[in-house]
Amino acid sequence: MQPAKGALFSRARLRQEGQVEKMKPVPALSGVKQKLAERVARRIEDDIVRRGWPVGEGLGSEAELVVRYGVSRAILREALGILTYKQVVAMRRGRSGGLVVHAPAAAVVAGSVATYLHLIGVSVDELYDARITLEVLAARLAARRIVEDDIERLRTVAATDPIGMPPSLVIAEVSRNPMLAILVPTLTRVTGALAGGPRPDFRLGPSAKSARGHALRAIAESVVSGDEATAARRMRRHLEGERTWLKRATASSEVPAAAPASGATSAERIALTVAGAIRREGHAPGHVVGNEAALRDRLQVGRAMFREAVRILEHNGVAQMRQGPGGGLVVARPDPVRVVQALALYLEWLAVTPADLLEVRAAVELRVVELAAARFPGADPEPLLASLTAAPDGGRAEAGVLVTLAGLAGNRLLALFTAAFGRLSSFRTAEPAHDALARIVDAVVVGDSSLARNRTARYLQVLAGSTTPGTAVRG
After folding, report:
1. Average pLDDT, stretch 168-195?
2. Which of these, 249, 251, 270, lies nearest to 205 by C-alpha position?
3. Does position 203 have pLDDT exceeding 70, yes or no?
């Protein structure tokens, strides 16, 4: 489809089509309550987690579910549509049919997170701060844990650098940390979207590609040799080089506008087109961009495809379809809650151990406090102090302090991951955390990044000492 010239939702264009009366301002939706169907979907997810995620087990017929959750058939079907999109369940037809629990697909979760990050317009710096944090950790762990069966595969991938399986994904798998095996591919998808192609190197010239190949082979050999420090240093240098190139390329229009991540569905592509137009045209929350008929005509899509795209936009809190006079597709503020839930749900299904979680938490939280302290001078301390007051006894309540710190860090990816980690049942401490958290907060408030990192590292060492390696905890 070749869109007409001009803004996709420009006022002049809609006036020509007689739609200008549909563009009256409406109240902003940033504070809108979660839709009933979404609440029902979350209740079903919670029930699945409590039952130990019984893959293949039936949860009941549509009629039984209507009674169990006390909603209409229409609301239930909308809730099941959300869960089917996330591949948590499937409806089996026939005499012995009903709702069946699925094993969640890693690719779907990665796609959901990548789509959200794309929709909010994540920056190159935000992306590469997160990538460096996680992939340097992956390189260290891979060098520590690589076994004989991994060596030939890693060397082959580093030498050939196939688009479908970049070496960073293999290194994440070799790290033996299941959290990295989902988070690293997610960020790789976002990188490709920002680069306007499969991944950042697809537009490099011969000499630059040769340099990339040399760097990847050097990283692989450091991992094979078990040299953690060198593997980490080479991975950091490689990613910093990618960051520099991509920032320069996007600033100079050397690459096209962000493209849908590889593997995106048609509905996802439509959703990204709409979100991109909203972002480019600077529409504020509450602005009506058009009614269904006008937007379908503009996008040249059918009703079913358009409504699936709207569901994706609503799921990510980018826009919401408002019925009635003055209604239409209304701009909202992207809401990370849903994607945090999806990521946490998948990590729960993986039954990540407390040790797995702490490895990734350590890398993310050390970077978070460093960024927060560097940005804090002049900021309002009240939200941070309030979160500390709400966490008197450690345990799960500490997640609130860490999420607040992540928000202050100014990196939406690290904030999203921190929020997801805090929802896991393996996020727990055996010792009261309040005093340690208070010391970290004090260092952040005075803007002392080094002291904040030092206190966070010691805090995490205490947590590591109270963790039993290899213990899987389900919600």
Report:
1. 89
2. 249
3. no
